[in-house]
Design a protein that fits this description.
2 domains; about 45% helix; 12 strands; 4-stranded mixed β-sheet; CBS-domain; alpha/beta; 5-stranded parallel β-sheet
Length: about 325
C-alpha cells in the first residue's frame, strides 16, 4: 500500500470524482428501469390511512431511517422500524392500515425476512426496494422497485456506496412523487419545520414580530417638528410615524431626516422645531400589511435600503411598526 504522501493531489481528486460519477451512473441506470411498479407504490402510499413503516438493516437501515424522516416532513406519516428491535416487541407499533417499505440490497436480510410473516398476516401492502428482484423479499412483496447496481464505487466493490445511494434516491423519488400527487405545498412543509429557517420564512408574519400599542412611535400630523423629535427620542426606534385624525398613515420622519433639516437650516434665524411636522415628513412612505410574511418585509427593506416599515391593517390604519432588528431576532436575516 502506498503512503498517503506518495499520491498526488490530482490522483486523489480523480478518485473522488470517480465515486461521484459511479454513483451518478448507478442512479441514471435505475431511472431507466422505472416502470408501473413505481406508480403502484406511490398510489399505495398516498391512499394509506395509516403510517408508512420503513425498515432496513445495517447501511440500508440508515437509508430507511432517513427515508422515514423525508416522508414525515413532506406530509406522509412515517416511522423507522428496526428489524432487530421489531422482533423483540417493536412490532406493536404496526397498525392494520399501515404500508411497509422494506429496503434490502440482497433481499435476503435475515432479520427483515423474519418480519414478513407478521406483515403478511396483517395483510399489509409491502413495497420492496432491493438490488435483487428475484430475492425472498421481492417474492413476498406487493410491489418491487429495482435498485440493483452492477458494482459498488470502490475498486473492489466492497463498501455499500452505489447500492445505498440508489436505494436512497428511490426513497426520495417515492417521497417527492407522493408529495406532488397530494399537492403538498411549501406552506405545509413549513408547518413541519417550524424551527428551521424555511419554516420561519414561510410561517412568520409581520404581525408576529412588529411593535404595537404604546411601543409605536406615532404623532398626529398637526404636531410640531419638536414634538416629533421628542417622540423619536422616547421610543428609541430612530423614526416616528405621522398619522391623520383617522389614524391613517400620512408620513414618516427619521432621525436622519432631522439631522438633514438642521444642517439645511443652520444658517437661518428661524427655529424649525416650532414648525409643523407635515412640512418635513416623507409623504407616502413604504409600508406593509399586517398579515404579510415577514420575509416579504425583509425583502422590501433591502430593496428600499430602509430599516423600518410602518405596518397597516386592512383598513389602512397604523397597526404597528417593524424594524430590521426585529427580523434579525426572528431569524430571517
Amino acid at each position: 500500500m502506498n503512503s498517503p504522501a506518495e499520491e498526488t493531489d490530482s490522483t486523489i481528486e480523480a478518485w473522488f470524482t470517480d465515486v461521484l460519477k459511479s454513483e451518478s451512473s448507478a442512479i441514471e441506470s435505475a431511472a431507466g428501469r422505472v416502470g408501473c411498479e413505481v406508480a403502484e407504490s406511490v398510489r399505495t402510499i398516498a391512499a394509506s390511512k395509516g403510517r408508512l413503516i420503513v425498515t432496513g438493516m445495517g447501511k440500508m437501515g440508515c437509508i430507511a431511517r432517513k427515508a422515514a424522516g423525508t416522508f414525515s416532513s413532506t406530509g406522509t406519516p412515517a416511522i423507522f422500524l428496526d428489524p432487530a428491535d421489531a422482533l423483540h416487541g417493536g412490532l406493536g407499533i404496526v397498525g392494520h392500515a399501515d404500508v411497509v417499505l422494506a429496503i434490502s440490497n440482497s433481499g435476503e436480510t435475515t432479520e427483515l425476512l423474519e418480519l414478513l410473516p407478521f406483515m403478511l398476516r396483517k395483510k399489509l401492502p409491502i413495497i420492496a426496494i432491493t438490488g435483487n428482484v428475484t430475492s425472498s423479499l421481492a417474492r413476498q412483496s406487493t410491489t418491487v422497485i429495482d435498485a440493483s447496481v452492477d458494482t459498488e464505487a470502490d475498486p473492489d466493490s466492497l463498501a455499500p456506496t452505489n447500492s445505498s445511494t440508489v436505494a436512497l434516491a428511490c426513497c426520495d423519488g417515492l417521497a417527492v412523487t407522493v408529495m406532488r400527487l397530494r399537492g403538498f405545498t411549501k406552506e405545509q412543509f413549513a408547518i413541519f419545520h417550524p424551527g428551521g429557517h424555511l419554516g420561519r420564512k414561510l410561517l412568520l408574519q409581520v404581525k408576529d414580530l412588529m411593535h404595537q400599542g404604546e411601543k409605536v412611535p406615532v404623532v398626529d400630523v398637526s404636531c410640531s417638528l419638536g414634538e416629533a423629535v421628542t417622540m423619536i427620542s422616547q421610543k428609541k426606534m430612530g423614526t416616528v410615524l405621522v398619522q391623520n385624525k383617522d389614524s391613517c398613515l400620512e408620513g414618516i420622519l427619521t432621525d436622519g431626516d432631522v439631522r438633514r433639516i438642521f444642517e439645511s437650516t443652520a444658517n437661518q434665524e428661524a427655529n424649525p422645531l416650532g414648525e409643523s411636522v407635515a412640512s418635513f415628513m416623507i409623504k407616502k412612505p413604504a409600508s406593509i400589511q399586517i398579515d404579510t410574511l415577514a420575509a416579504v418585509a425583509l425583502n422590501l427593506m433591502e430593496q428600499r435600503q430602509i430599516t423600518v416599515l410602518p405596518v397597516l391593517n386592512t383598513e389602512q390604519k397604523i397597526a404597528g411598526i417593524i424594524h430590521m432588528h426585529d427580523l434579525i431576532r426572528g431569524g430571517l436575516a
